[in-house]
Amino acid sequence: MPIIYIGILPTPLRWHVRDEAVDSNTIVSRFAEEQGTVTYVDLSEWVLNNGSPDRSLFRSDLQHLNAAGYEAITPPLKSFILNIF
Description:
Blueprint: E1 3-6, H1 18-34, E2 38-41, E3 48-49, E4 52-53, H2 67-84
Protein name: SGNH hydrolase-type esterase domain-containing protein
Organism: Aurantiacibacter sediminis
């Protein structure tokens, strides 16, 4: 069964630990490359605006995506899925 792993998204709440999130995503991405059934997807560019998380895409907790955030990441994720299957 194929597994699609969506990388840790940069969020306003956790922006101060973005380097750790990038490091974690790098580790998972490398692991996924070694596996035959895991594919890593990076959607971070779709929630950034001028290099920082776009606050309008997050709920009031500044951690979780709101409806606009999901609308922002759905097209690239859908395109990715359709291209691998």
